[in-house]
Amino acid sequence: MQNKATDLFSNWAENGRDQGMANAHGPAVAEILSSTLDQRKKPFSFIDAGCGNGWVVRKVHSMSLCESACGVDGARAMIENARNIDPD
C-alpha cells in the first residue's frame, strides 16, 4: 500500500527535506516570480496551494505590491514548519 502524498511530505518536513526542496527549487521559482510579478503595477493577493514550509509565500509577501499572501498544504508537518518560521 502506498503512502499518501501528504504523509510523504510530512515525513520530509520532519526530516528537514523541506528546506532542501526550497533550496533546490529556489532559482526556478525566482525566475517564474520575476517574470510574472515584477511587472505588476497594481496591488495583488497571492495564494500558494501546496506551499510546503511557506518559503514562496514569505518571498511573495515581502514584495511591495503584495497586499496579502496565504499558503495551504495538506501535509501537517509542512504547515507546522511554516508556522514555526513565520507564525503569520
Topology summary:
Elements: H1 5-14, H2 17-37, E1 44-49, H3 55-61, E2 66-72, H4 76-85
Parallel strand pairs: 1-2
Helix pairs in contact: 1-4
Structural notes for this entry:
- The structure is a single chain.
- Helices cover 55% and strands 15% of the residues.
- By secondary structure, the protein is an alpha+beta fold.
- Strands 1-2 form a two-stranded parallel sheet.
- Helix 3 (55-61) links the parallel strand 1 and strand 2.
- The longest helix has 21 residues, at 17-37.
- The mean pLDDT is 92.
Task: From the structure above, extract its key features.
about 90 residues; alpha+beta; 4 helices; single chain
Strand line-up of the largest beta sheet: 1-2
Counting copies of identical and different chains, the oligomeric state is single chain
What portion of residues belong to β-strands? 5-15%
- Measured distance between first and last alpha carbons: 36 Å
Shape: elongated
Mean pLDDT: 92
Given helix and strand content, the structural type is alpha+beta
Radius of gyration: 14 Å
What letter string, H or E per element, gives the SSE order?
HHEHEH
Query: Regions with pLDDT < 50 over 5+ consecutive residues?
Result: none
Share of residues in helices: 40-55%
The main sheet comes to: 2 strands, parallel
Number of helices: 4
Number of strands: 2
